[in-house]
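[Q] Does anyone have a clean C-alpha cell version of this?
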Amino acid sequence: MEGPLQRLSAYRQSVWIDSLSRASIRGGHLQGLIDDYAVVGATSNPTIFQAAMSEGDAYDEQLRELAGRDASDAFWALAVRDIKDACDLFRGVFDATEGRDGYVSLEVDPTLAYETLQTFREAIDLHETVDRPNLLVKIPATKPGLAAIEDVIAQGRSINVTLIFSLRRYAEVAESYIRGIERLIAGGGDPRKVASVASFFVSRIDTEADRRLDEVSDPAHRYNELKGRLAIANAKLAYEHYKQTFAGPRWEFLADKGATPQRVLWASTSTKNPAYPDTLYVDELIGPDTVNTMPQQTIDAYQDHGDPEPRLARDLDEAHALFDELAAAGVSYEDVTDTLEREGVEKFSDSFTQLLDGLRAKQSSLTLTSTG
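[A] Here you go.
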C-alpha cells in the first residue's frame, strides 16, 4: 500500500533525504529509504558531515590510512568516498528516471562562498574527483557565487545552488543557469548531461520573520496572524517565477537542444517551531517538477501522517499581499533574507571549522591508540 511519500511522486515532486553518513550508506539504511520511502536523492552539507563524522567509528579505518594528512585533506578523502558510494547506490534511480533524480550533493568548501574563481575551480575539481554522472556540486547563492555557477554550468557540470532565501537572488540564480546553458550550447556542448536545482531554505525564513514580529510593539496582537506564513508565501512566489522563467521562446530554444529546467528544491523543511505542524513545509509546498529534501524525522512524520495535495500554486494573491502586510508591521523582507544568507554562510563555515577540529582530535586519538 502506498504511503504519503510515494503519493508525492504522482504530483511529480521528488523526495530526497537531507542527511548522509557512512553508517547509513553501508548499513542498509539508505537503501531502505530508496526501497520503502520513495527517496530518490540525497544532499549533504558541512553540518551534516560534521554530525556524521563526529559519531561512532565508521570513519576510523580510513582515518588510520590517512595518517599524516592534514585534517582538510582527510575530510575531503572521507567525504569523496561517501559521496561516490552514495552515487553508486542511487545510480539505479538515476538510470531509471533518465537523469531526473538519483542525485547526491557535495558542497564546495564553505569558506570560499565569496570567492568566485576558487569556487569555480573547486567545483570542477570535485566533479572530476568523484567522477559520477549523478553528482551535484553545491555552490552557495552569494553574489560572487553567481558567476561561478554560470561558469560551471557552461562547462557542462551539474550544480545544486544552495542557501537561497530571497526572490531577487533566486531570479539571479535562474538567470545564471540559463546563461550557462546558452554558453554550453554555443560552445558545442551537450546540455542533456547537465542537471541543476535551486535550493530554497524554508523554515529559517519563518524563524527569523517570527522573531522580528515578536519584537514589534503590538498590544492588540494583530500581527500574530502573520507568523508562520512568510516561508510558504516566499516559496509559492519562487515557484511562480520558476514557471515563468522556464517557458517562452528563450527557454524553448534551449529545451529543443536538450536542456532541462533548473528545478526548485525546498530545503530546511523540518519545522523549527513546535507550535506548527511537523509536516507543514511538505504539505504546503507540493507542486510539479519540485524537490523536497527532508531530514529523517520529517520523512518519518510525513510517511505517518502527511496529507499530499498540490497546494503550491494556490492562493498566490494572498502570498503577494503578505509582503505588504509584513512591511506595514515593520518587518523588512529584504533585511530578513540578507541576514539569513549571511548567517547561512557563517553557520556552514563554522560547521566546517568544527568538523576539521573534530577530525584533528580523532586523528590524534587514533594515533595514540595505535602507538600505545
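[Q] Thanks! Anything notable?
[A] Residues 323 and 333 are 7 Å apart (CA to CA).
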